[in-house]
Amino acid sequence: MKTYSGKDKINGDVWYKYPVIANYKTVTIFNVSSHHFFRIKIGKQDGKIVSGYDYQFKSGLGGGCNPGRKWGEFDSYDEALEYELNKTAQILQEIKEPDGAEKDALRRILKFREKFIQKDLFE
Q1: Torsion angle, CA of 24/103/93/69, rounded to 10 degrees?
Q2: Among residues 25, 60, 113, 120, which is most buried (max CB within 10 A)?
Q3: pLDDT at 38
Q4: Rounded to whole angstroms, how far apart are CA atoms 111 and 123?
Q5: What residues does each domain of the chain span?
């Protein structure tokens, strides 16, 4: 994975001003309700594989961004998907007193990640 920081530039623009993309594929990790879901967005920008995410948990924790080179570039779609799974799992694992929704989200992410690693997503 390649990342940008400081005064790094992408095609002449300071990395944080570089645009994100609007055309991407969405991988739904889980979708229990409109207040409890996690989706990973993967696409290509300038020939590079990029990712983003969109999540909301019943606890109120949520966030999202569209894919873009400014967030990082990957060598494969699998690497991008695994990165987003691991990043979100780490956020949830660092919560000192997770509530039931956060525990449920982490359980679902870890289960998806395990199936992904085993390439057994369609069980």
Answers
A1: 10
A2: 113
A3: 95
A4: 12
A5: 9-117
Distance separating alpha carbons of residues 110 and 38, to the nearest angstrom: 12
Tens of pLDDT, residue by residue over 29-68, are: 999 999 999 999 999 999 999 999 999 998 888 999 999 9
pLDDT for residue 105 is more than 70: yes
User: Distance (Å, rounded) from C-alpha 72 to C-alpha 56?
Assistant: 22
Give the 3-state secondary structure percentages of the chain, helix then strand then coil, rounded to 5: 35, 30, 35
Q: What are the helix (H) ranges across the chain? A: 77-93, 100-117
Say if residues 80 and 50 touch (Cβ distance below 8 Å). Answer: yes
Give residue for tokens 């920008």. Answer: 45
pTM: 0.86
DSSP-derived letter for residue 21 is P
| Res 122 pLDDT > 70 | no
How many Cβ atoms sit within 10 Å of the Cβ of residue 25?
11
